[in-house]
Amino acid sequence: MTVEASRTVGSGVRLERAILVGVDLGVRSRGNRAAQAGARQAVVCADDGAPDEDVPETAGLPRSVASPAGAAAARSQTELDAEESLAEFRELVSSAGGEVAAELMQRRPRPDPATLVGAGKVEEIAGVAASTEADLVLFDHDLTPTQLRNLEAALPCRVLDRTQLILDIFARHARTSEGKLQVELAQLEYMLPRLTGKGKAMSQLGGGIGTRGPGETKLETDRRQIQRRIDHLKLELDSVRRVRKQQRQRRESVPVPTVALVGYTNAGKSTLFNRLTGAQVLQSPRMFATLDPKLRAIELPSRRKILLSDTVGFIRNLPHTLVTSFRATLEEVAQAEVLVHVRDAASTYGEEQKSQVEKVLGELEALNKPRIEVLNKIDLLGEHERAGLQARGEAGGEVAVSARTGEGMDGLLAAIDRVLHSDPVIEAELRVPQQEGSVLAAIEAGMIVHTREYEGNLVRLTVSGPASLVGRLRKYRLRDE
User: Fold this and answer.
1) SS (HEC) of the chain
2) Are 215 and 204 in contact (CB under 8 A)?
3) Contact by Cβ (8 Å): 408, 401
4) Residues 301-320: what's their mean pLDDT?
5) pLDDT tops 80 at residue 328
6) Is the dihedral of CA 456, 461, 462, 468 positive or negative?
7) What pLDDT is recorded for position 87?
8) I want to staple 14 with a disulfide (CB 3.0 to 4.6 A). Which of 9, 119, 389, 392 is the partner?
9) Do the beta carbons of residue 275 and residue 267 sit within 8 Å?
10) d(Cα 435, Cα 439) in Å, to the nearest integer?
C-alpha cells in the first residue's frame, strides 16, 4: 500500500491528499497539562539542589512528582505533546510523498474501542474528507483490526494508521535485497491479523444459490498464503544473519572494533557518517532515508583503526514488527563495542527522542554498552545556546558537533579514542635497523612517533600505538612501559 499517487494533473504527478488525525489520550484539560509542565519545572529545581520549600507548587499533583524521585513519572506523563507529535507525523507524511489536506486533533481520556476517536469525531472527519477531496485519512496512533474495519466503513476514503505509514516509508526506501526482505516480512506480519473486513469477498463464502459447497474461505486461503510467505522470508533472513555472523567472525580475527551510530530518525547520522568517513551515502532531511547499514574504516587520533557503522534511525513507537524484522541489520548495533548516540541539538523535544532511542536499545539488549552522546546540528543554534551546550558537554561528557560544517569532529574522534578499550594504546621504545624499511614504514603509518634518534645504523624511537601492532614488533622493543 503506497501513499504516492499514480494519477497525473497536466504534466506533473499529483500527490495523494491526506487528512492527519492526532489523538491525545489521557489528558483531560489544558489545566492538567499546565500542571504537568509545572511538575517538570519542579523536577528541574529539585535536581538543582533547591530545598523543598523552593519547589513551586503544582496544581493537583502529588508532592512525589515534584521531586527527583518523581522525575520519571512526570516525564512519562509528558513524553511528547500532542501538537509536537502531530508535527512529527506531518514529517512522516512528507517522507512518504503525501500532501496534507487538513489536520484534526481529538483529545480523549481513553480510546474509543470501536473507532478510537468516537462517533462524533468520525462524522467530522468524514465531512472534512468529502470537502477536501482527500484520498486517505492517517491516524497518528495504531488502530486495532476492529477500529480499522469500522473506520473504513464510515469514511469515504482509505484509512491508514501510524505503523502502516512507517512501513510504507520503509518499503519506499529499501534498496538492497536484504532490506526489501525485512520490510516485506514486517508488512505481512502486520497485515495478517487485519485481513478480516478487507472486502466481502475475503470475509466469507457466498450466500446465494450455487455458492454453497466444500472448500475454505477466501480469508483462510489468504491467511495460509501469507503465513507460508512469512515462513519463507524468515528462512531467507536467517540465511542473511548467518552470512553476517560469518562476516563479523572474519572481522574479529583482525582486531578492528566496530563503532555504531545510533539515534532518532533525521538526527543527522548519515551526514555525520559521510563527514567522518568521506563516504557518499544518501543524506536526506526526510525520515528513514537510511535503511541498509553501511560500514567504513576510519583512523582515530591514536592511529587505531575502527569500523564505523551507519544504522537505521529510530522513532517514537517504532513498530515492534520492524524491530523484529530488522534484527539482522540491528545486530550490528548489538555487536558494536561503542555506540555513538547522535542527537538533534536543535530539537525542542530532544530528551523525549533520547528516551525513545534508549527504549529500542533496551529491546536489542545494547543499553549497557559504552555510549557517547553527540549533540549534532549546533550550527542551527544561537551563540548563547551553543555556549550552554559546550559547558554542559564539558561537565557531562557530551560532544557538541555540526556534521554539516565539520565543527567538533576532532573532539568526537578523541572521545571515541578514550572510550574504546579493545586493542589499547601503549607506549614503547623501539630500536630498528635503518635497512628495515618496511618496519619503519609500518611504524610511521600505524603509530605516533614521539622521539627519533639515530645510533649508527639503528633508529631509536619512542612511540605510542595499538597493542596489536606493538606486539608484532616485539623483537625491536627495548623495554616495556
Assistant:
1) CCCCCCCEECCEECCCEEEEEEEEECCCCHHHHHHHHHHHHHHHHHHCCCCHHHCCCCCCCCCCCCCHHHHHHHHHHCCCCHHHHHHHHHHHHHHCCCEEEEEEEEEECCCECCCECCHHHHHHHHHHHHHHCCCEEEECCCCCHHHHHHHHHHCCCEEECHHHHHHHHHHHHCCCHHHHHHHHHHHHHHHHHHCCCCCHHHHCCCCCCCCCCCCCCHHHHHHHHHHHHHHHHHHHHHHHHHHHHHHHHHHHCCCCCEEEEEEECCCCHHHHHHHHHCCCCCCCCCCCCCCCCEEEEEECCCCCEEEEEECCCECCCCCHHHHHHCHHHHHHHHHCCEEEEEEECCCCCHHHHHHHHHHHHHHCCCCCCCEEEEEECHHHCCHHHHHHHHHHHHHHCCEECECCCCECHHHHHHHHHHHCCCCCEEEEEEEEECCCHHHHHHHHHHCEEEEEEEECCEEEEEEEEEHHHHHHCHHHEEEEC
2) no
3) yes
4) 81
5) no
6) negative
7) 82
8) 9
9) no
10) 9
All three cell numbers of 382: 544561537
Give how far Cα 352 sits from Cα of 69, 134, 137, 247, 374, Å: 18, 32, 26, 35, 15
- The rounded Cα 441 to chain-centroid distance in angstroms is 42
Please state, in angstroms and rounded to a whole number, the distance separating the CA atoms of residues 38 and 302: 47
Read off the pLDDT of residues 266-289 as tens digits, 9 standing for 90 and up: 888 888 999 998 877 655 555 555
Write the pLDDT tens digit of every residue in 103-129: 999 998 999 999 999 999 999 999 999
How crowded is the C-beta side of 93, counted as CA atoms within 13 Å?
A: 27
What's the rounded Cα separation, in Å, for the pair 356 and 121? Answer: 30
- The pTM of this model reads 0.70
Q: What angle do CA 462, 465, 470 make, to 5 degrees?
A: 80
